[in-house]
Fold 3-hydroxyacyl-[acyl-carrier-protein] dehydratase FabZ.
Amino acid sequence: MLDINEIQEILPHRYPFLLVDRITDIEKGKSIVGYKNISISEPAFLGHFPGHPIYPGVLILEGMAQAGGVLALKSNDLTKEQLAAKVIYFMSIDGAKFRNPVKPGDKLEYRIEVKKLRGTLIVLEGKAYVDETLVAEAELKAMIVDK
């Protein structure tokens, strides 16, 4: 399990764009499970949509990508110093589908599995759930690069 402080040691993202609150399970080179608690105080709800707040699909995908980034970086067994010199760039998001809306008060759980891991390239299958209901899915491709 990784808490928010440990996640911030891995990812360069910060508020309001750090979209993973906790990692609950990680199996290097295979899968990761993490979540974000969706609060009405999220900046996106100021405009999406007033009076009918729905968490934007693009932020769900970004959260999946961030969880996948943690998995990719942790799967390469980098030292703390090496990790600080790396960043992950997402190259493509394919087959994105949004199944159900995500609303304030929801716990958005990201479940990411490795489809292919070859050196610095990783292909991931990402799914997002709220209370065991699939809300979004996509295939994510990324590469680890030097900062």
User: Anything to note?
Assistant: The beta strands are 22-27, 31-37, 86-98, 107-118, 121-130, 133-146.
